[in-house]
Amino acid sequence: MSKLPHKVVVASRTFSRHPVLRAEMQARFESVTFNDEGLQLVGDQLVCFLAGHDGAILALEKLNSECIARLPQLKVVSKYGVGLDNIDIEALKSAGKKLAWIGGVNRRSVAELTLAFMLGALRNVLLSTRQMARGEWKNFGGTDLSGKTVGVIGCGFIGSEVLVLLRAFGCRVLVNDLVDVSAKARTWSAELATKEQIYAEADVITLHIPYSKENHHLIGETELAKMKPTAVLINTSRGGIVDEAALLRALTSGKLGGAAMDVFANEPAGDSPLLKLDNFFGTPHVGGSSQEAILNMGRAAIEGLTNALVEEGK
Prior knowledge:
By secondary structure, the protein is of the alpha/beta class. Helix content is about 40%, strand content about 15%.
């Protein structure tokens, strides 16, 4: 296959430093600009970096309507990853630009981290590790995941993958989604439930929904108060869905047993007070970043960009 003549750019730092993805990108296009300096591109800096290119691959970089209006040459934006909340899709459409996106390419990676959070929180892994580092030898063995009631809010690509993994543990699984997921529930022996039922009955509650104005602080003071004091809350979807100040109060007051999050309202979140708690697990947005997921996401982004630019040229 001959190289495409389009000028393309990769804003994602993870993609840009991945040798396999770089090679595959360069084999596909004649002119490729990578984010070799590892810059966190925002606002004017992002516009300057993307300017003069026909296509772009973005990860978490925020492409709003103002940025889009200043990029007349840009024809296609391809998403490295699955979340689209950082891109103004309507502005992109209004400007006549295409969005290339494939959902679910990192679903197993995020689902496995979710499972790790469940097991780690229930078995007090973080607490035990910190105690041993302080020279303490105490036995807080926690509880098994097997046989517990797990509430899954959001049953799309990742939520469905969590259902697959949970089958091995014989859990009672409650699922909630805005769309009809009754077929999935039957396939994986789960029960359809309201959010209220999940809050009241689940030992573990895991969130797999996109961020939106409607979902902002979906889990706040009121919702946390409805959960069991021994319950564990997990968020590997998007920051801002959980009210972190309310979560901090619930965890420190004993109103909630534990929590784990891979995503935060403001990232990097190294100064979050949640990270100082023994009943809170935090990771730096690594859910979709296993080596396998990085390749899957990168190749999907390359394919989407290629197809869209070829179609654009017809």
